[in-house]
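Re: [ENG-882] Designed sequences occasionally contain unexpected residues at chain ends

Forwarding the minimal case from QA. Structure tokens:
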């Protein structure tokens, strides 16, 4: 073990990163080097405990001592406390990052490709390269999280699924289910006041099929469209209300 630092110093550095991320509201790059160093420290601590237990077992006078009088026990307890603290710090660091990623996911309306994509060249946007800051396991988590929400929306918030479930539960009498699909990913911070909305195209997003027909949303053009048809494009930053 490197004597340049005490046990727990590396975990403290990891918590400091999480606090800085919270204070600046910024997703910092996953610190793989520091996480691996803490894991190595955990293994070293476990080896120290095993060595202390072996010394205690080899001590011929250990059998005659009471459990609280074992001279090796304070050392074992110290190492065990360090292991548990490192574990709590690792869990807190990863929990903080996963909560931050979930907030980012909802902020773009559940558009995972948009969240992971690089910012378009020359675009006037504050978007950052999120994917380069993630570990492979975090990317897998986002994909699993997105798939779970898609399954929930399909099975629980779809008018077709709800009607089928209600009919099966009610039998011949029948129960009226949902008449429209519920958009689970729609923002609710600012409830819409009108069904129609004037929008300006900020980024090209190609042809989109709406209730009024196919519309080619080219940058700089303005349209009056039904809000429900383009709500996701507003959330994802392709359109803005004008």
């Amino acid at each position: 073990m490197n004597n340049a630092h005490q046990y727990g110093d590396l975990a403290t550095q990891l918590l400091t990163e999480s606090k800085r991320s919270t204070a600046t509201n910024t997703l910092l790059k996953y610190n793989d080097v520091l996480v691996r160093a803490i894991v190595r420290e955990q293994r070293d601590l476990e080896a120290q405990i095993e060595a202390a237990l072996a010394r205690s077992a080899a001590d011929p006078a250990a059998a005659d001592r009471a459990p609280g009088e074992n001279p090796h026990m304070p050392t074992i307890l110290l190492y065990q406390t360090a292991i548990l603290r490192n574990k709590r710090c690792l869990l807190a660091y990863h929990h903080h990052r996963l909560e931050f990623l979930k907030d980012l996911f909802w902020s773009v309306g559940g558009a995972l490709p948009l969240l992971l994509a690089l910012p378009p060249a020359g675009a006037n946007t504050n978007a950052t390269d999120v994917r380069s800051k993630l570990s492979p396991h975090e990317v897998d988590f986002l994909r699993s999280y997105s798939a779970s929400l898609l399954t929930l929306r399909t099975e629980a918030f779809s008018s077709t699924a709800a009607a089928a479930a209600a009919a099966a539960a009610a039998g011949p009498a029948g129960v009226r289910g949902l008449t429209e699909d519920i958009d689970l990913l729609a923002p609710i911070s600012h409830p819409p006041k009108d069904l129609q909305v004037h929008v300006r195209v900020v980024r090209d997003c190609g042809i989109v099929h709406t209730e009024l027909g196919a519309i080619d949303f080219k940058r700089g053009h303005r349209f009056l469209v039904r809000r429900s048809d383009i709500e996701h494009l507003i959330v994802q930053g392709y359109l803005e209300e004008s």
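QA comment: On inspection the terminal residues look reasonable. The first strand starts at residue 196 and ends at 201. Proposing we downgrade this to a documentation issue.
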